[in-house]
Write the structure tokens for this entry.
Amino acid sequence: MRLRSLPLLALSLGLAACPGNESETDGTTDAATTEPTTDGPATEGTQTAGPTTTEDEPTAGTTGEPGGDLNPHTLGDHASQACKDAMAGAATFLAATADADAAAAYTDALKVYVQALDTANMRDDDSAITAALATGDGPGAALAEGHLYTSLMFQLRASLSAVETGAEDKYAAWDEAHCVWDGALRSLAERAQAAGWEGAGDPMIADIDAAFAAGHDGISGEPPATAIDDWRIPPNKQIIEKTLFRAAHRDIVGQAIGATMAADTALAARALGVFGLVRDRLQDRNTPGIAVIEGMLAGDPAMISGTLIAIEMDKAFAKRTRNYADQAFGEGLGIPPSYKGAVEGRTYAKLIVAGMGSAMMNTEAYLADWETYAELVRTGEDEAAAMEVSQRLIDATCAYQTALGIAACTGSDDEM
């Protein structure tokens, strides 16, 4: 079933500009992690003009960016054997969650790996998976799927952060993230593209694959003296993470719509499980929305509103997008941190355009402005032009926040 349109009937669009934004960096950028090793897991009604091209990073000869592959290694070669073994089991387990009896598939290397991730990342996903499987029914198996995806998503984020924050073997950290992407999380993105809300035509998988390849090319040296290209690693990290958030967002809304249409508790449970990937993105931006979404997905599927779930998630993501629409001016144009922030905002923007399109907004122009803004921030050659485009981005993002029912446009304030 293809889910292409979700009219946001609750929206009342107001096109007023909003006040300036407080400067802030998104939480995933600053996540503290410890160093992964090669011996085990890291320690840590309107057609929307959505994204139709893959994310591109600067090529050779541009500001601060040397271009080319800085190392002789192959992407994925330095992932831990524990991850490789676990991902072989993950494929079997994820296939089994389509049926009621998936418990037999959650064994051996996969379970051990999840337990190790729980220790490293201070989580309890193994217990959550085990408890969901213990119900022995379809909804339990569906929920267990989401718990596994959530565990692996946190491992991906921890591993990518370790590349930036001091891992001696940055190849191992980057490749560990690629291992969980290629071995399991890719299947979530595939489902989002094939059957998620507004997923068709959105090159999420291609964006992530390209970012992994470009980031790997930006690592140099040999352990323990590996180094990164600051023009490539941080922006590509953001593309990977935020595009996976987009995949989860599309899948959650798609599953929620399907659950309502079929009164299917298993589809609702699947959406609830996947919500774990983005739950912390709502924290401190739309904290009340977490209970709304979780309560709805855990209740009567006939009472689920895909529209309301999309709105509650977009309240948080529209704030995060707004945060990056002018952050570069406080840091200075033409430097890697500013460019990273512009790419982060551009990638978040690709998440919220599905809802913006349903609110009758010009998403094609909005995405084009984000592309222009990121390039102007990267080169740093025309601050006046960058400020002009930035203001258009602020106006459009704030208009969407107004449509979502946010009282005052912000990049950081929580809902009450």
Q: What stands out?
A: Residues 1-5, 7-25, 27-49, 56-64 have pLDDT under 50 and may be disordered. The longest helix spans residues 233-262. The radius of gyration is 20 Å.
